[in-house]
User: What shape does this take?
Amino acid sequence: MATGKLWIVLNPTAGKGKAARKRGVIERILSESGRAFETLLTKGPGDAQHIARELPLGPDDVTVAAGGDGTCNEVVNGLLSRHSDAPPLFGILPIGRGNDFAFTPGIPCDAEGAARALVSGKTRPLDIGLVKGGDFPDGRYFANGVGIGFDTKVGLEAAKMKIKSGLSYALGALITLARYEPSPVVRVRYGETDLTMPAVLVSVVNGRRMGGVFYMGPNAVLDDGLLDFCAVRRHPSRLGIVKIILKYTKGTQAGCAGVHMGASGHFLIEALEGGLVAHCDGETLCLDGKSLEISCLPGALRLVGSAP
Assistant: This one.
């Protein structure tokens, strides 16, 4: 049980500004619980990471990302850049536009429910991923996952929109599908597996869901020491990719011809032709990358407030 102070790192611009309006509900629940807490507002990109890295944390204090997946990613990177004798305690208040990671551990999607789960103090081990390459040769940590190809292009289109996450990703998928640009040829190695294929849609995930409705890792477990892999191994027609994407919305893509799934603690992905367009927890990793090395860090954090 985590009973220390709650440091709430709140991104007021998350959810197109909706997160700021959730502050009152969150602080009311925390005050009623009797837990010590402090709310720290971010002021721009990278601020949540800086705050998490510099907090005067006690051994039982919890650093809480209040925002979307981008805020979670920054807080995770801040916490793991600290020197700590034990895995830091990490909580989530999913009040952003994209709250995909919070779905896997069963954290309530409403501010009040998430705050009540947080003060329960229940903890569990949380694996974290580390990706090296692209714009981050020294590495970038991630909680949810890395996407390459179609997934990233959809995310870039969705980020331009002002509508809610699920619909924006659906529209982004339609725009990306209409363009349907050639995919780079990549080599993927993990365990005893060695694949050469077009990088139509490649995912290496810790969590189960991306883009609000797409289950890239339907069987992912947060504390098994593994990252899940899912890829479309051949270049289907537009109709073919639509059929596969619809399977992703149900997590049943494993039954599709040309879809490969697996799991490992370490992956190496190299572009043999063309460049990699990739994201990490929704943040751009590269637009023309040549290689990515992705590893799982078992139990790197302790997650507070997840479902039993």
Summary: Residues 53 and 78 are 4 Å apart (CA to CA). Helices lie at 23-33, 47-54, 69-80, 100-103, 111-120, 150-158, 165-179, 238-248. The first strand starts at residue 6 and ends at 10.
